[in-house]
Write a structure and sequence with these properties.
By secondary structure, this protein is of the alpha/beta class. It has a single domain, classed as Alpha-Beta Barrel (TIM Barrel), CATH 3.20.20. 46% of the residues lie in helices and 12% in strands. It has twelve helices and eight strands. An eight-stranded parallel barrel has the order 1-2-3-4-5-6-7-8, surrounded by six helices. Helix 1 crosses helix 2, helix 4 runs parallel beside helix 6 and helix 9 packs antiparallel against helix 10. The protein is globular. The two termini are 34 Å apart.
């Protein structure tokens, strides 16, 4: 069984004032995220603006972050694309720089059948000797990875889990019921962590955990300890903040929030841009109502 930890944070990619990747800032952020609740990090995922990063930038990010945190936390590399061949090549190169696992998104734009999805993920997993977590996010890919396909793929060597961001709890329940006990079912939506884990899911790949990682971890630990009422209270407290951080496409609100708080991570790359003033005001108001766990002086 892969031991990535229950709380993974999908890390933003910091940019400098010229729009270039700020690798030193990425190292600092990686270190501080582990201090503030994260067990491991997903690098170059959706939150990391993977569509706008070059292969060279991704590989250097993987190397720099892993070098920074060493054995203190897992580094999961976002290596999945809509091309099976390209995904294999990037996953192999990522393995060579020392990552602990890879995140493989459901192919976007080309909309494969369920059989095509099975072959895509199983081919990558059997070709690349690295633990793989699949990522189902139909709102972005226009393609759902069905429960029966996940269950089928859970029997493939090296496929160790799924990040489920469908918000379809009937589907998620079928997955949890049908996969082996050691198969890791992560929530791909911060607001779904409590109900997913209450159904027997494993953990979360979070976004707001940049800022409320310790509180999220406390919620998870209380739930696992059977203190459901206390866990639910934390869940309810965090939900308005989660909503504010997804008013527009991630990572626009998160990067705005980090910069507003004084932890500079730079702008998003086009085609993503800064939030309008109405959205920015709502994010600022949400930040005033929440305790921030990330050490902002780092």
């Amino acid at each position: 069984m892969a031991t990535f930890g229950r709380l993974l944070t999908a890390m933003v990619t910091p940019f400098d004032e010229k729009g270039e990747v700020d690798y030193a800032r990425a190292r600092t952020l990686a270190h501080l995220l582990l201090q503030s609740g994260s067990d491991g990090l997903v690098v170059s995922g959706t939150t990391g603006e993977s569509p706008t990063l070059s292969v060279e930038e991704k590989l250097r990010l993987f190397r720099e972050v892993k070098d920074e945190i060493g054995g203190d936390g897992a580094v999961i590399a976002g290596t999945g694309t809509y091309s099976t061949r390209e995904s294999i090549e990037l996953t192999r190169e990522a393995k060579n720089v020392g990552i602990d696992g890879c995140l493989l998104v459901v192919p976007y734009y080309n909309r494969p059948t369920q059989e095509g999805l099975y072959r895509h993920f199983s081919t990558i997993a059997t070709t690349c000797d690295v633990p793989c977590i699949m990522y189902n996010v139909p709102s972005r890919t226009s393609c759902n990875l069905a429960a029966e396909t996940v269950i089928r793929l859970s029997k493939v060597d090296n496929i160790v889990g799924v990040k489920e961001a469908s918000a379809n709890f009937r589907q998620i329940s079928e997955i949890i019921q049908g996969v082996p006990e050691d198969f890791l079912v992560y929530s791909g939506n911060d607001g779904d962590t409590f109900p997913l884990m209450a159904m027997g899911g494993y953990g979360v790949v979070g976004v707001v955990t940049h800022l409320v990682g310790l509180q999220t971890k406390e919620m998870m630990e209380k739930l696992l300890a059977g203190k459901t009422d206390e866990a639910a209270a934390i869940h309810r407290h965090l939900l308005p903040f989660v909503d504010a951080m997804f008013l527009v496409a991630n990572p626009i609100p998160l990067k705005f929030a980090l910069n507003h708080l004084g932890f500079r991570v730079g702008p998003t790359r086009l085609p993503l841009c800064e939030p309008d003033e109405k959205t920015a005001a709502a994010i600022r108001a949400a930040l005033e109502r929440i305790k921030i766990d990330l050490p902002l002086s780092g």
